[in-house]
Structures are given as structure tokens and as C-alpha cells.
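ok here's the first one, seq then C-alpha cells
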Amino acid sequence: MTAGQTTSPSSSSSEPPAISVRRFFITDDDELTAAVRASLPELSRWMPWATNDFSRSDASDFISGSNSPNRMDLAILDENDMIIGVSGVNHIDTTNRTANLGYWVRSDRTQRGVASVAARLGAKRAVEERQINRFEITMSVENVPSRRTAERLGAQFEGIARNSLLLHNRFHDARVYSLMASELDQLPAPPSRPWPSKPSEE
């Protein structure tokens, strides 16, 4: 998942958001579909999978693969436990303990600091569950909101990877950032709620 963040005219809040992340449940397909479809104008520019025909079936397929050997995608929940985006890692390299870190937030919840808090929570979970040591965050040089999120997260800019992203049949240069597991604990703790656990099944 290439890093991406939608843009919104909403004004930013001075207080960081109290959010949480958790694994997806199979029953999350409707909420995930709604979050994607509410953000298509912004998401589709950076994430080719976000198309006008994105459906509940597509959401179900995503959820089915969200916890696999090379992926760990987590639902971002707001204070009312509504799904407002995704934070996660992919291209997990267990030999070198590296992974790509990505994130997106639905359009009506951006510019509130959600993406950077959720990305950190997702990274910490990947450290604990997958022993990831190095995270890479890449985005098109034109994706300014995602760049700002990476920098707010404390990731270090490493350089430009020329023509490394193909988006809508056009190659983009990409900005590459890195974040180490040890650096996550050096950042101020984000205000967040405890990770929700799976509801009990009767």
C-alpha cells in the first residue's frame, strides 16, 4: 500500500485525535466500502484500486487478505468506533525485517492529524507482531499531504526514486522516507484509545 492521504477543506484541530486501530472483521465490509466511496475523488489519484465501481465485494476481498504473511492492514477507528481509514504495512520482508508503511484517511476526517497518529499506531503494532525494524514510506512527489504526514511522523527523507511509481499510466518520481522501530519510542506518545479487541462470539 503506497502511502496516501486524502485532502479536505476542513480546518485542522489543535488537539490530536483520540483514535485507535484494530484488525479488520469480516463484518466491516459495509463501513470500509462507505469510507472508500466517500473519498474517491481524492483516493483515486494516488491509489489506482480506488475506482468508481469499488464495491462491498472489493472491500470483502481486501479484508480477507488484510492479515497475511506479507501484509498487515488495520482499521482506523474514530471516537465512535467508526472506520475512517486504513493504516498498515505490506511487502513484509521477514529476512531483513523491513516493510512498507501506508495509510489513508477518509476525506471528511483529514487535516486533523489522524493519519500520522494512525500510522504510528500501525507501525508499533507491526513491530510487536511482526518484529519489523525498518519501515519505508513512499509517495509521489506530487502527493503533498502524504509527505507532510510522513514528516509529522518523524520519518527521515532518504531521497527521490526516479520513475518508481506508475499511477494511471504515468510514471511518477517518488519521495522515500524511512522510520526505524527504535525511533517510534522517541516520539511523543499520541493520544489514542486502547486497541479494541474482537467482540465475543456467541
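and now the second one, same deal
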Amino acid sequence: MLGLVEVNDGIAGDVLRALGAESSAIRRSVETLLARGDSMRSTGPLPFSPDVKKLLGSAVEAARHFGHDYVGTEHLLLGVVRRQGSIGARALESVGVTALNAYEKILLVLDLEPPDGTLIDGTTDAFDNLTDAARTLMNKAHDAARERGNDHLSTGHLLLGIARDGDTVAARALHSLGVDARKLHDAVDALLAHSTARLPFTPKTKAALKLAADEARELGTDGVGPEHVLLGLLAGQDSVATQVLRDLGIDRERLRSLIESGEP
């Protein structure tokens, strides 16, 4: 990670600067996470850790994704940010650099159109099979996030998106279960006020969308609709939306039965 920061004339350096990530801030974050001391210094070549080996494999995959016959700093940067939970990825996240915004900025710097296939979770695969109603839900969720001055899309925003469109199976199911829209909004807002997430799509939001796709497959439907997103939110763990729904007394199996019956 520090090697990427030191290379000033590479694509990765251009991307990090474009994203407002100062090299000194990244360096401080990495060194804090490493908690390094004098005892860790070495004058000889160091062996690659298993995580670094996986990172290099991820960089090669990124190069192939772009159709490049070389592995450059831009591919190494993507290799770092795609290794969620690694020291490099956490350091970049601390200065606002995510896999998604790095990927988008690399496309811009290299003047490329997005290649076919998915390299970064959240770019296309989460939305490939959404119904028109679910896409409308996503737009309403984005509106809810912008209105609150949030720069990420959380599960709470997805839940607000569901509540804002009363003509979907999901919204009617909530109404049938006695959920008051105003109480739902207040409950979500109370929890969002304590959120510190910065990602355009939080990991829990991505997980909820994947769970929604699983629900759609289990129910034998062709597309992922708002009702599947609602089930995905309720199936999650410790997210804003999951907490709100459970606090409101929503039972997942009862909700699922209502949706399966088609008469919520």
C-alpha cells in the first residue's frame, strides 16, 4: 500500500489524488494499523504474506478485466481496495477511498467505458435482475439519502424507499402487518442519526440486495421486486432496517406468507 502512495507518476497516484486522498494521511493510517516498531524493521527482502499474494492475483484479474496485457499501479490499487478487511483497504477506507469510487475514477483517468463483466461488487451485479418497481424503490432510497445529507446508501434508506411507494407488494405487506409509515420513518431516522458509514453502498446494503435475490429465487420469481428487498432486509443481521422491522414486531415468516399469497 505504501509503495503505491510513493509512486507519484502512476495511474494509482493520479486516482488517489483525484479522490482527495492525501499520501500523508494514507501513510499515517497504514502505520497505525500495522502498529509497527523498530523490531519489525528488516534490511533484506521480505516474503509475501498470503494476503499480498491474493492481492497480486486480484490485480492480475483487474488487468484482464480491462483487457490490459500488463499489471500497472491502477490494477494494484484495485487489488488493494478489493481485499476488504486488509490493512491497505482499511487505510484507504479511512480517507474515503472505496472499491467502487476507485474503479469509477480509474475508468475516468484512463478514458475507458466500463468493460463487460463485473469486477467490483455494487457496480452492476446487484441490479441486473431488479424489476421496474424495485428500480423505482432504489431511486426513492437515493432520494431519502440525499434529503438527509447522507453520502452512502444504507439498509435504512432502502426501507424508506419501500415505505414511500404504497402501491407495491412490500408496502402493502407492511401495512397489513400494522406498520405505521410515520413511525417507520421516525425509527429509521433515529438510527441513521448515529450512523458513521461512508460507503456509497454499505456492506450491509450489498448483503441485503444479495439476500433479496436469494428470496426471489426461492419464491420462483423472474425478477427481484420490492417485496424481495423487504425480505432481504429482514433476513439481515444488525442493520438499521433489520432493527427497525424487528422493533416494529415484523415476523419474517408471516411476512413471507403474505407475499407468497399475493394478497397483502
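notes on #2: The longest helix spans residues 50-65. Confidence is low (pLDDT under 50) at residues 36-44, 122-126.
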